[in-house]
Amino acid sequence: MEPGNRRLAWDLSGNVSSIKCYVNGALSGTVKNNRYCLLHAFPKCEASNYTVHATVPGGKQFSAWINYPRQEGNPRAAAEHLQCRVHDLHFLTCSWAVGPEAPRDVQYDFYLEELSNSTTWPCPRYTKKELDTHVQCQFANVSELPNDEEQNLLFRLLVQGRSRHSRVPCSEIVKSLSEIEEFTAPNLTADCNKSLAVLQWRMSSHFTKTFDYELRIEEDSGAPIMQNNLSQKYWVLPNPGTFTVTIRAHGGQWSARQRFVCDQEDEGRLYVWLIALTALLVVGAAILLCKKYSVLQKLFPPIPHMKDPTGDKRVHDENMMVWQPSLPPPEDCPVAEVQLVEGT
After folding, report:
1. What b/e string do you get for 234-251 counting C-beta neighbours within 10 Å, with b at 16 or more?
2. Phi/psi zone of residue 127: left (φ > 0), alpha (ψ -120 to 50 degrees), beta?
3. Could you give phi then psi for residue 265, rounded to 5 degrees?
4. CA atoms within 13 Å, Cβ hemisphere of 173
5. Is the pLDDT of residue 151 over 80?
6. Is 288 left (phi over 0), alpha (psi -120 to 50) or beta?
7. What is the pTM of this model?
Protein backbone atom coordinates (compact mmCIF):
# COMPACT_ATOMS: atom_id res chain seq x y z
CA MET A 1 0.00 0.00 0.00
CA GLU A 2 1.26 3.49 -0.91
CA PRO A 3 -1.19 5.91 0.76
CA GLY A 4 0.84 8.99 -0.12
CA ASN A 5 0.55 8.18 -3.83
CA ARG A 6 -2.91 6.59 -3.50
CA ARG A 7 -1.56 3.40 -5.07
CA LEU A 8 -2.08 -0.31 -4.49
CA ALA A 9 1.07 -1.93 -5.95
CA TRP A 10 2.30 -5.47 -6.57
CA ASP A 11 5.16 -7.47 -8.07
CA LEU A 12 4.37 -9.39 -11.23
CA SER A 13 6.24 -12.26 -12.92
CA GLY A 14 5.05 -13.71 -16.21
CA ASN A 15 2.56 -12.50 -18.80
CA VAL A 16 -1.02 -11.52 -17.99
CA SER A 17 -3.94 -10.69 -20.28
CA SER A 18 -5.74 -8.50 -17.73
CA ILE A 19 -5.57 -7.22 -14.16
CA LYS A 20 -8.38 -5.72 -12.09
CA CYS A 21 -8.53 -4.17 -8.62
CA TYR A 22 -11.38 -4.56 -6.13
CA VAL A 23 -12.14 -2.77 -2.84
CA ASN A 24 -14.49 -4.68 -0.55
CA GLY A 25 -15.61 -6.74 -3.54
CA ALA A 26 -16.40 -3.78 -5.82
CA LEU A 27 -14.36 -3.01 -8.94
CA SER A 28 -12.34 0.12 -8.22
CA GLY A 29 -9.32 2.10 -9.41
CA THR A 30 -7.41 2.30 -12.67
CA VAL A 31 -4.66 -0.20 -13.51
CA LYS A 32 -1.38 1.40 -14.65
CA ASN A 33 1.32 -0.58 -16.52
CA ASN A 34 0.08 -3.82 -14.88
CA ARG A 35 2.05 -2.73 -11.79
CA TYR A 36 -0.35 -0.72 -9.62
CA CYS A 37 -3.89 0.58 -9.21
CA LEU A 38 -4.51 4.30 -8.80
CA LEU A 39 -7.32 4.79 -6.25
CA HIS A 40 -9.35 7.85 -5.30
CA ALA A 41 -8.70 7.60 -1.56
CA PHE A 42 -7.30 5.32 1.10
CA PRO A 43 -9.19 4.97 4.39
CA LYS A 44 -7.29 5.77 7.55
CA CYS A 45 -9.71 4.49 10.15
CA GLU A 46 -11.68 1.43 9.05
CA ALA A 47 -10.00 -1.57 7.42
CA SER A 48 -11.00 -2.43 3.85
CA ASN A 49 -10.22 -5.49 1.75
CA TYR A 50 -8.09 -4.82 -1.36
CA THR A 51 -7.95 -7.63 -3.93
CA VAL A 52 -6.05 -7.92 -7.22
CA HIS A 53 -7.33 -10.37 -9.87
CA ALA A 54 -4.92 -11.37 -12.66
CA THR A 55 -5.87 -13.38 -15.76
CA VAL A 56 -3.11 -15.12 -17.71
CA PRO A 57 -3.25 -16.17 -21.40
CA GLY A 58 -5.43 -19.25 -21.53
CA GLY A 59 -7.97 -17.86 -19.06
CA LYS A 60 -6.59 -19.07 -15.73
CA GLN A 61 -7.02 -16.55 -12.88
CA PHE A 62 -4.97 -15.71 -9.82
CA SER A 63 -5.65 -13.28 -7.00
CA ALA A 64 -3.99 -11.75 -3.96
CA TRP A 65 -5.46 -9.57 -1.21
CA ILE A 66 -4.65 -7.52 1.89
CA ASN A 67 -6.59 -5.62 4.54
CA TYR A 68 -5.71 -1.97 5.11
CA PRO A 69 -5.24 -0.10 7.41
CA ARG A 70 -4.14 -2.18 10.36
CA GLN A 71 -6.64 -1.93 13.19
CA GLU A 72 -5.28 -0.79 16.56
CA GLY A 73 -7.11 -0.02 19.78
CA ASN A 74 -10.71 -0.60 20.79
CA PRO A 75 -13.08 0.30 17.90
CA ARG A 76 -15.84 1.20 20.41
CA ALA A 77 -13.62 3.94 21.81
CA ALA A 78 -13.62 5.82 18.49
CA ALA A 79 -15.99 8.74 17.86
CA GLU A 80 -19.39 7.56 16.65
CA HIS A 81 -22.13 8.97 14.40
CA LEU A 82 -19.85 11.41 12.59
CA GLN A 83 -21.95 13.79 10.49
CA CYS A 84 -20.83 16.81 8.45
CA ARG A 85 -22.71 19.49 6.52
CA VAL A 86 -22.10 22.78 4.74
CA HIS A 87 -24.90 25.15 5.77
CA ASP A 88 -25.97 28.80 5.81
CA LEU A 89 -23.68 29.35 2.81
CA HIS A 90 -20.45 29.90 4.77
CA PHE A 91 -20.26 27.24 7.50
CA LEU A 92 -18.93 23.68 7.67
CA THR A 93 -20.03 21.89 10.84
CA CYS A 94 -19.16 18.33 11.88
CA SER A 95 -20.48 16.63 15.00
CA TRP A 96 -19.92 13.23 16.65
CA ALA A 97 -20.63 11.26 19.82
CA VAL A 98 -18.13 9.94 22.36
CA GLY A 99 -17.45 6.23 21.88
CA PRO A 100 -19.31 4.07 24.44
CA GLU A 101 -16.08 2.39 25.59
CA ALA A 102 -13.78 5.40 25.30
CA PRO A 103 -11.31 6.02 28.16
CA ARG A 104 -12.39 8.65 30.67
CA ASP A 105 -9.62 11.02 29.54
CA VAL A 106 -10.38 10.61 25.82
CA GLN A 107 -10.04 13.65 23.59
CA TYR A 108 -11.02 13.99 19.94
CA ASP A 109 -9.29 16.20 17.37
CA PHE A 110 -10.82 17.08 14.00
CA TYR A 111 -8.94 17.54 10.71
CA LEU A 112 -10.05 18.42 7.19
CA GLU A 113 -7.82 16.96 4.46
CA GLU A 114 -7.95 17.66 0.71
CA LEU A 115 -7.07 14.31 -0.84
CA SER A 116 -5.51 15.40 -4.14
CA ASN A 117 -2.51 17.00 -2.41
CA SER A 118 -2.94 15.99 1.28
CA THR A 119 -3.33 19.62 2.45
CA THR A 120 -4.73 19.51 5.99
CA TRP A 121 -6.60 22.07 8.11
CA PRO A 122 -7.03 21.55 11.89
CA CYS A 123 -10.31 22.50 13.48
CA PRO A 124 -10.42 26.23 14.32
CA ARG A 125 -13.36 26.07 16.75
CA TYR A 126 -14.63 23.23 18.94
CA THR A 127 -17.80 22.68 20.93
CA LYS A 128 -17.19 20.68 24.12
CA LYS A 129 -19.16 18.26 26.24
CA GLU A 130 -18.65 17.40 29.90
CA LEU A 131 -15.01 16.82 30.88
CA ASP A 132 -14.06 19.22 28.04
CA THR A 133 -14.36 16.49 25.42
CA HIS A 134 -14.68 17.81 21.86
CA VAL A 135 -17.95 16.76 20.20
CA GLN A 136 -18.28 19.32 17.38
CA CYS A 137 -16.11 21.38 15.03
CA GLN A 138 -17.01 24.38 12.89
CA PHE A 139 -15.25 26.17 10.04
CA ALA A 140 -16.72 29.66 9.72
CA ASN A 141 -15.64 30.53 6.16
CA VAL A 142 -15.68 27.67 3.64
CA SER A 143 -14.95 30.12 0.80
CA GLU A 144 -11.29 29.85 1.86
CA LEU A 145 -11.26 26.13 1.02
CA PRO A 146 -10.37 24.80 -2.46
CA ASN A 147 -13.31 24.96 -4.84
CA ASP A 148 -13.40 23.07 -8.14
CA GLU A 149 -16.84 21.81 -9.11
CA GLU A 150 -15.60 20.24 -12.36
CA GLN A 151 -12.94 18.10 -10.65
CA ASN A 152 -15.25 17.36 -7.71
CA LEU A 153 -12.45 17.54 -5.13
CA LEU A 154 -12.66 14.98 -2.33
CA PHE A 155 -12.05 15.78 1.33
CA ARG A 156 -11.37 13.53 4.29
CA LEU A 157 -13.30 14.67 7.38
CA LEU A 158 -11.37 13.00 10.18
CA VAL A 159 -11.83 12.67 13.95
CA GLN A 160 -8.70 11.33 15.65
CA GLY A 161 -9.00 10.03 19.22
CA ARG A 162 -6.25 10.11 21.84
CA SER A 163 -5.78 9.01 25.44
CA ARG A 164 -2.89 8.60 27.89
CA HIS A 165 -4.00 5.06 28.74
CA SER A 166 -4.80 3.34 25.42
CA ARG A 167 -4.90 3.79 21.67
CA VAL A 168 -8.12 5.23 20.28
CA PRO A 169 -9.04 4.54 16.61
CA CYS A 170 -10.15 7.37 14.34
CA SER A 171 -13.42 7.99 12.47
CA GLU A 172 -13.77 9.53 9.02
CA ILE A 173 -16.00 10.54 6.11
CA VAL A 174 -14.73 11.00 2.54
CA LYS A 175 -16.94 13.39 0.54
CA SER A 176 -16.87 16.38 -1.77
CA LEU A 177 -18.15 19.51 -0.05
CA SER A 178 -20.87 19.91 -2.69
CA GLU A 179 -22.26 16.48 -1.63
CA ILE A 180 -22.86 17.61 1.96
CA GLU A 181 -24.07 21.15 1.21
CA GLU A 182 -27.53 22.16 2.43
CA PHE A 183 -28.67 24.91 0.08
CA THR A 184 -29.98 28.11 1.59
CA ALA A 185 -33.28 29.46 0.27
CA PRO A 186 -33.10 31.62 -2.89
CA ASN A 187 -33.68 35.35 -2.56
CA LEU A 188 -37.07 35.96 -4.24
CA THR A 189 -38.48 39.25 -5.59
CA ALA A 190 -41.42 40.15 -7.85
CA ASP A 191 -42.69 43.00 -10.04
CA CYS A 192 -46.34 42.91 -10.99
CA ASN A 193 -49.51 44.74 -12.11
CA LYS A 194 -53.05 43.62 -12.82
CA SER A 195 -52.15 41.70 -15.97
CA LEU A 196 -48.71 40.27 -15.31
CA ALA A 197 -46.27 39.24 -12.57
CA VAL A 198 -42.56 38.58 -13.11
CA LEU A 199 -40.87 36.56 -10.36
CA GLN A 200 -37.08 36.62 -10.07
CA TRP A 201 -34.68 34.88 -7.69
CA ARG A 202 -30.98 34.66 -6.91
CA MET A 203 -29.06 31.66 -5.53
CA SER A 204 -25.64 31.54 -3.84
CA SER A 205 -23.19 28.70 -3.19
CA HIS A 206 -19.42 28.37 -2.90
CA PHE A 207 -19.33 24.86 -4.38
CA THR A 208 -22.24 24.58 -6.85
CA LYS A 209 -22.81 26.68 -9.98
CA THR A 210 -25.94 25.21 -11.56
CA PHE A 211 -29.25 24.54 -9.84
CA ASP A 212 -32.70 23.15 -10.46
CA TYR A 213 -35.51 24.94 -8.66
CA GLU A 214 -38.92 24.02 -7.28
CA LEU A 215 -41.52 26.80 -7.36
CA ARG A 216 -44.84 26.74 -5.51
CA ILE A 217 -47.49 29.39 -6.25
CA GLU A 218 -50.87 29.56 -4.46
CA GLU A 219 -53.38 31.89 -6.10
CA ASP A 220 -56.38 33.05 -4.11
CA SER A 221 -58.60 32.49 -7.14
CA GLY A 222 -57.28 29.11 -8.31
CA ALA A 223 -55.53 25.82 -7.59
CA PRO A 224 -51.88 25.79 -6.46
CA ILE A 225 -49.25 25.86 -9.20
CA MET A 226 -46.16 23.65 -8.86
CA GLN A 227 -43.16 23.93 -11.17
CA ASN A 228 -40.28 21.45 -10.74
CA ASN A 229 -36.82 21.24 -12.31
CA LEU A 230 -36.70 24.87 -13.38
CA SER A 231 -33.24 25.89 -14.58
CA GLN A 232 -33.98 29.56 -15.29
CA LYS A 233 -34.07 32.26 -12.61
CA TYR A 234 -37.43 33.85 -13.44
CA TRP A 235 -41.09 32.97 -13.92
CA VAL A 236 -43.90 34.94 -15.62
CA LEU A 237 -47.42 34.64 -14.18
CA PRO A 238 -50.33 36.11 -16.22
CA ASN A 239 -53.36 37.70 -14.49
CA PRO A 240 -51.80 37.15 -11.06
CA GLY A 241 -54.27 38.87 -8.76
CA THR A 242 -53.24 38.02 -5.21
CA PHE A 243 -50.93 35.05 -4.69
CA THR A 244 -48.43 33.49 -2.29
CA VAL A 245 -45.13 32.02 -3.49
CA THR A 246 -42.22 30.02 -2.08
CA ILE A 247 -39.16 28.51 -3.79
CA ARG A 248 -36.15 26.34 -3.10
CA ALA A 249 -33.10 24.97 -4.88
CA HIS A 250 -33.67 21.24 -5.37
CA GLY A 251 -33.22 19.50 -2.01
CA GLY A 252 -32.54 22.77 -0.16
CA GLN A 253 -34.52 24.96 2.21
CA TRP A 254 -37.81 26.54 1.16
CA SER A 255 -37.91 30.32 1.15
CA ALA A 256 -40.30 32.14 3.46
CA ARG A 257 -43.85 32.42 2.09
CA GLN A 258 -44.29 35.79 0.38
CA ARG A 259 -47.67 37.28 -0.46
CA PHE A 260 -48.11 39.65 -3.43
CA VAL A 261 -51.15 41.79 -4.27
CA CYS A 262 -50.96 42.73 -7.96
CA ASP A 263 -53.72 45.36 -8.41
CA GLN A 264 -51.58 48.36 -9.40
CA GLU A 265 -51.88 50.26 -12.67
CA ASP A 266 -48.23 51.40 -12.70
CA GLU A 267 -46.42 49.31 -15.28
CA GLY A 268 -43.13 51.22 -15.52
CA ARG A 269 -40.76 48.89 -13.67
CA LEU A 270 -42.43 45.82 -15.11
CA TYR A 271 -42.07 47.05 -18.69
CA VAL A 272 -38.42 47.91 -18.10
CA TRP A 273 -37.79 44.35 -16.94
CA LEU A 274 -39.71 42.85 -19.85
CA ILE A 275 -37.82 45.03 -22.35
CA ALA A 276 -34.53 43.86 -20.84
CA LEU A 277 -35.69 40.23 -21.02
CA THR A 278 -36.82 40.67 -24.63
CA ALA A 279 -33.51 42.27 -25.57
CA LEU A 280 -31.66 39.37 -23.95
CA LEU A 281 -33.74 36.85 -25.91
CA VAL A 282 -33.20 38.77 -29.18
CA VAL A 283 -29.45 38.87 -28.64
CA GLY A 284 -29.44 35.15 -27.87
CA ALA A 285 -31.48 34.41 -31.00
CA ALA A 286 -29.16 36.58 -33.13
CA ILE A 287 -26.11 34.75 -31.82
CA LEU A 288 -27.81 31.41 -32.55
CA LEU A 289 -28.72 32.49 -36.10
CA CYS A 290 -25.21 33.76 -36.78
CA LYS A 291 -23.76 30.47 -35.63
CA LYS A 292 -26.29 28.60 -37.79
CA TYR A 293 -25.49 30.78 -40.86
CA SER A 294 -21.76 30.19 -40.33
CA VAL A 295 -22.35 26.43 -40.20
CA LEU A 296 -24.48 26.55 -43.39
CA GLN A 297 -21.76 28.47 -45.21
CA LYS A 298 -19.24 25.82 -44.24
CA LEU A 299 -21.56 22.99 -45.33
CA PHE A 300 -22.77 24.69 -48.56
CA PRO A 301 -20.17 27.19 -49.83
CA PRO A 302 -21.42 29.67 -52.49
CA ILE A 303 -20.95 28.77 -56.18
CA PRO A 304 -18.28 30.98 -57.80
CA HIS A 305 -19.51 33.59 -60.36
CA MET A 306 -18.64 33.11 -64.05
CA LYS A 307 -15.95 35.47 -65.29
CA ASP A 308 -15.75 37.34 -68.65
CA PRO A 309 -12.67 35.80 -70.32
CA THR A 310 -11.74 39.12 -71.99
CA GLY A 311 -12.50 41.67 -69.34
CA ASP A 312 -12.37 39.53 -66.17
CA LYS A 313 -15.73 41.02 -65.22
CA ARG A 314 -18.84 39.26 -63.99
CA VAL A 315 -21.23 38.40 -66.85
CA HIS A 316 -24.75 39.70 -66.42
CA ASP A 317 -27.60 38.19 -68.38
CA GLU A 318 -29.03 41.56 -69.42
CA ASN A 319 -25.74 42.51 -71.16
CA MET A 320 -25.41 39.31 -73.21
CA MET A 321 -26.33 39.01 -76.94
CA VAL A 322 -27.76 35.82 -78.39
CA TRP A 323 -27.31 34.88 -82.06
CA GLN A 324 -27.70 31.88 -84.34
CA PRO A 325 -24.54 30.30 -85.77
CA SER A 326 -26.04 30.48 -89.32
CA LEU A 327 -26.46 34.26 -89.25
CA PRO A 328 -23.63 36.57 -90.29
CA PRO A 329 -21.75 38.22 -87.48
CA PRO A 330 -22.70 41.78 -86.56
CA GLU A 331 -19.73 43.29 -88.42
CA ASP A 332 -20.99 41.84 -91.82
CA CYS A 333 -24.29 43.81 -91.82
CA PRO A 334 -24.63 46.38 -94.71
CA VAL A 335 -23.64 49.90 -93.76
CA ALA A 336 -24.95 53.05 -95.51
CA GLU A 337 -22.79 56.13 -95.64
CA VAL A 338 -24.40 59.43 -94.73
CA GLN A 339 -22.93 62.75 -95.73
CA LEU A 340 -23.89 66.01 -94.19
CA VAL A 341 -24.21 68.79 -96.82
CA GLU A 342 -24.23 72.31 -95.56
CA GLY A 343 -27.14 74.23 -96.97
CA THR A 344 -26.95 77.62 -98.53
Report:
1. ebebeebbebebbbbbee
2. beta
3. -90, -20
4. 18
5. no
6. alpha
7. 0.68
